[in-house]
């Protein structure tokens, strides 16, 4: 069974083509097919597509490159060459077996065996693919790297020895250009960065290494590729670069804090200034009883939003909403944590969660401020949270518990970065704002695949507006059936 998600595509009223299993459609069954029909609305840049059921996106994924309209220039000097760079993971095991074993045991799954750059781990021990990806460059030319993190479970640092990277776009939204030697990119995020070939010759290491600032096991292998100047002998030594330590929080924050929307006349930042729904969602882990989980001593690790571990339905939610089918979901997802505690301090004695298929209802064109708060239950952790159907503005972030009386005073409502996937800092919070101008049922989940499997997901139900242009289009005739 397959489902294909177009990650980050802003498709209005056509949720039937969004892709996540049992949210907007049922899986495409073996031997069957389904035509995704959608219109890309006002977007250009780098996005990607991937399987959106279980852990199949480990190998089923690819880039979506949306070019500007003919005659519309980039808001920066046009690069000489453009190159897709997909960061991923290599697994010796069948990833479906990995997650199934973890769910059965109640414990965390094994980590991947290597990281990859365009499918190659590079020269690492125990791996047959020794060469690695090679990008050939010429002195004086500029190269725009369309970088995508397609890894299942790990945020990654990316850098190139001896070269700076000028960041010009994230998640298919232009940003004010800035120069850095290290990019941090979470699963589900994309970053366009320009590197200029300033050397006369040589070979230079490109590296993708893990970022994890919590006491959690990760695949610690660095994927290695090569920036190779034309005319340089293959036997020439490669200039190396030191990768940041996995817990280099300051390096990650330096990159994240540098991101700003262009907010120009051609590319305005339309940040909602008035808020109709002010939501506060805790995101994190929990522990529930599991009598069959022998490895977990009768308990299992789960994940939740506002203490609700999401239960996937067997009928697609959008289908149930459109046809008014009862008993598939409820619309009582809590807008605030049901139980208050020191979210980033000592955890409560009861680590259990509730479970259900709960949605949060939004009126068409209403505005939302959503604060995503990490919790320290089991361990604080950075959660890359992805919202389908919308871009949003990241207006603020901080460490510790969000303070609604103090923290909004520091929000950036002028040129905050616009994204579709945002990292909730370890032991901290992030605030986003968006306008609910896309009717349908839209999935929001952690893009660490293990956390999604454990239940760190929910969905927004955006009601129809007035008339057909503000309403969900009818489902296509070939919509897969459950």
UniProtKB/TrEMBL annotation:
EC number(s) stated in the UniProt entry for this protein: 1.10.3.2
Primary localization: secreted
Signal peptide from the UniProt entry: none
GO cellular component terms given for this protein: apoplast
Top-level EC class as recorded in UniProt: oxidoreductase
Protein purpose: Lignin degradation and detoxification of lignin-derived products.
Stated name of the protein: Laccase
């Amino acid at each position: 069974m397959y489902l294909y998600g177009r990650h980050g595509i802003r498709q209005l009223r056509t949720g039937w083509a969004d892709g996540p299993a049992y949210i907007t459609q049922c899986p495409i069954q073996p031997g069957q097919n389904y035509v995704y029909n959608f219109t890309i609305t006002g977007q250009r840049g780098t996005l990607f597509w991937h399987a959106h059921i279980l852990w199949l996106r480990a190998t089923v994924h690819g880039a979506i490159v949306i070019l500007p309209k003919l005659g519309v220039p980039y808001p920066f000097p046009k690069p000489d060459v453009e190159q897709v760079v997909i960061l991923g993971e290599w697994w010796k095991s069948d990833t479906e077996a990995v997650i199934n074993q973890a769910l059965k045991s109640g414990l965390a799954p094994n980590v991947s065996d290597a990281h990859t750059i365009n499918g190659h781990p590079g020269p690492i021990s125990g791996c047959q693919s020794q060469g690695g990806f090679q990008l050939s460059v010429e002195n004086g030319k500029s190269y725009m790297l369309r970088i995508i993190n397609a890894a299942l479970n790990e945020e990654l640092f990316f850098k190139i020895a001896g070269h700076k990277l000028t960041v010009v776009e994230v998640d298919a939204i232009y940003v004010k250009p800035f120069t850095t030697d290290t990019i941090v990119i979470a699963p589900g995020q994309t970053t366009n960065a320009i590197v200029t070939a300033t050397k006369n010759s040589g070979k230079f290491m490109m590296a993708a290494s893990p970022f994890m600032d919590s006491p959690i096991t990760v695949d610690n292998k660095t994927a290695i590729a090569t920036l190779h100047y034309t005319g340089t002998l293959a036997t020439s030594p490669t200039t190396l670069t030191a990768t940041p330590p996995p817990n280099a929080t300051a390096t990650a924050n330096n990159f994240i804090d540098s991101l700003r929307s262009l907010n120009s006349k051609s590319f305005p930042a339309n940040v909602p200034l008035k808020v109709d729904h002010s939501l506060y969602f805790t995101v994190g882990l929990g522990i529930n009883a599991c009598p069959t989980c022998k490895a977990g001593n009768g308990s299992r690790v789960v994940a939740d939003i506002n203490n609700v571990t999401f239960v996937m339905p067997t009928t697609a939610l959008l289908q149930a909403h459109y046809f008014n089918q009862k008993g598939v979901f409820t619309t009582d997802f809590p807008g605030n944590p049901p139980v208050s505690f020191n979210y980033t301090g000592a955890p409560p004695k009861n680590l259990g969660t509730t479970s259900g298929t709960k949605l949060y209802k939004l009126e068409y064109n209403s505005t939302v401020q959503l604060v995503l708060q990490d919790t320290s239950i089991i361990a604080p952790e950075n959660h890359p949270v992805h919202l389908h159907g919308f871009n949003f503005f990241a207006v603020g972030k901080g460490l510790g518990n969000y303070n609604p009386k103090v923290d909004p005073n520091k929000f950036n409502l002028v040129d905050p970065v616009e994204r579709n996937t945002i990292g909730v800092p370890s032991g901290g919070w992030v605030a986003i704002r968006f306008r609910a101008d896309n009717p349908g049922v839209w999935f929001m989940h952690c893009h660490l695949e293990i956390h999604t499997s454990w239940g760190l997901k929910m969905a927004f139900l955006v009601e129809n507006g007035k008339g057909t242009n503000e309403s969900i289009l009818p489902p296509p005739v070939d919509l897969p059936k459950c």
